[in-house]
Specification:
There is one protein chain. The protein is 18% helix and 30% strand. It is of the alpha/beta class. It has one domain. The protein has a six-stranded mixed beta sheet. The longest helix has 9 residues. The termini are far apart.
Amino acid sequence: MIFQAVGDGRPYPDHGYETTSHWSKVPPRQVRLEELTTTKRTLDLDALLAEDSTFFGDLFAHVVSWRGRLYLEDGLHRAVRAALHQRQVLHARVLTLPD
């Protein structure tokens, strides 16, 4: 299995980080794919296959840490691409929310 679980939506409270400039204040780190729970059930194949999928956005996936779990909020295509390349980690910005 690639991810810990596949979710449908964000179970955590709104954090207010909506733009790339908000997320750029969170330093990136490595996260194991098997520790992630997705917040989307479907993947846009155009995003997965596009060579310039990060050209207009953040280079790093966005992950929210809440109640001991890591939720992949943005960057599902990056995570699947990493798994297809047989990598077990993903570089992501991890925002920790209080419980």
